[in-house]
User: Fold these one by one.
Assistant:
Number 1:
Amino acid sequence: MNRADTAVLALQGSPRLTGNTALLLDTFLKGVAEVFPQFKTECFNTAEMNIAPCRGCSACKGKEGCCIIRDDMDQLYPLIREASFIILASPVYWWHMTAQLKACIDRFYAMDFSSFRGKGLGFLATFGGTEADSGYLIARGSVLSMARFLKMEFSFSFGVSTGERELRDNPDVLQKVREMGRSLSLTL
Ligand SMILES: Cc1cc2nc3c(=O)[nH]c(=O)nc-3n(C[C@H](O)[C@H](O)[C@H](O)COP(=O)(O)O)c2cc1C
């Protein structure tokens, strides 16, 4: 792919629009933009979108050939297909990503799985516990399995605890995340 055409799609799942996860993702994307400002980057918060849960009707696998639900996924499907890199970002809710982001991912089921092959996939998470096993590792494992199934390149995963201090009060982590964003650009 021509680097000028590289599209990064970020899907965020926190209902707190200016919370820790939003800041984590924003900082990461700033790092990406510093190195390759020409990348087309789009960021959506699934918590603000109208995305119905998958009905499991499998119409998408039959003669319909696409999801029969008409909602904001109509906007995301072409962007998902076009993206060369997908970043998922979520707070940990009950040992997993939020339902808002999960609903969006479930709807990937309607897509041609081969369209994911070779795309990069990254995961960013915040969590309130002080240990990574308070849910981050489970969510990460799920994203890793998804990458394997879809034959995507699992490029990075990063989780940060916000239990003792909010991310905005953690400049060292913010700096690290920005650097991660800068180095992501090099792998594209
Ligand atoms: C409904 C709910 C469930 C949560 N479940 C967990 C959990 O299982 N493990 C954990 O470490 N933190 C949990 N947390 C804490 C959040 O992950 C943490 O506060 C996170 O930084 C919030 O991110 P945000 O500011 O982007 O919303 C939970 C918070 C809420 C509101």
Number 2:
Amino acid sequence: MMKISQRSLGMQASPIRKLVPYANQAKKRGIKVYHLNIGQPDIETPKVFMEAVKKADLDVLAYADSNGWEPLRDSIAAYYKRMGLTYETEDIIITNGGSEALQWAFIITCDPGEEILVPEPFYTNYRGFAAPYLANIRPITTYPENGFALPGRSEIESLITEKTKGIMLSNPGNPAGVVYSQEEVRLLADIARDRDIFIIADEVYREFCYDGKSATSFGTMTDILDRVILVDSVSKRFSACGARIGSLTSKNRDVMTAALKLGQARLCVPTLEMIGSKALYDLDPSYFKPIRERYEERRNLLIEELQKMEGVLCEKPGGAFYAIAKLPVDNAETFAIWLLTDFEKDGKTVMLAPVENFYQTPGMGVDEVRVAYVLNTEDLAEAMRILDISLKQYPGRIN
Ligand SMILES: Cc1ncc(COP(=O)(O)O)c(C=O)c1O
């Protein structure tokens, strides 16, 4: 009988995009919607990207190598060296965004039924990357009350079974904006070494750390490099989400051999975007300073305003461009929908991402939302004013 597979039926629809129809309807009614729900930076993509693409006067837009255009891989290796990571061109394969690299990381490390440990709340698409390959995510639960810090070694180790193939960490993290301490990163590295499992290091937000801090990269931990699979992307780093250029990097030859086979099976990634992305990776590191300052200013404003709101709990996050706020509401998704269907202030409303689906454990995060600070400070301030008013009017407000 013709019916679609169980595994495709089992896929989740993106919880981040789930509310889009409600937002579209609000917009049709003439309401201005402030998008705090999605990690699409508003920062201008550096001009060098388009300049490089325009200069590329190709007679034939041919297939590229399956492991990526070599000059781009060279430029990423040089970028890593500037960041203190000793990866060579041969350790790097170009992927269709960080997303494809993460999918491959699940395929390469897990057979069906095997597991990767991931601190929750986690970037909800991790589930979508794992599900088609019947890999499972086992959560390491963290809590807003202590800034989503990792639990101790014994608690993490108690989650490891014979099915556990690795630990995945987004650092700085999406959705909570956590920058894990050097001790936390080292702890995971020690556990991976002692229990002989992989580390999948999602460091696509590497440059977005505030308060003068930086995120410790697994790529600097030379004693475990054979078990590290490093995922990167131009999407957030250079505000080039539409380029769809990412990379998977590893010193482990078996991992790279498998990655190349996966690369060959989909031929290659787009040539022009690789040409543009090389110019991005060649930018001087000073490029990041003003961008970081802009995000830091937004974060400070956002957190200050959220902390002023009665009943709202929000610890100041150290990185990426997200924060999780615990709200005095019965259900954050119902509230987020209500904001789009039943509320407006001066013809405006805000769109938030409910966090429940960023947790794996049922019942967690029901009163939490993720707020992305990808708007300018003026819009962000107005969005906070509107959110404050809406919380006072919401019929499902508790206490
Ligand atoms: C933590 C994290 N990893 C990976 C990605 C994937 O990004 P892309 O496929 O655009 O590189 C995202 C995008 O939001 C993300 O937040």
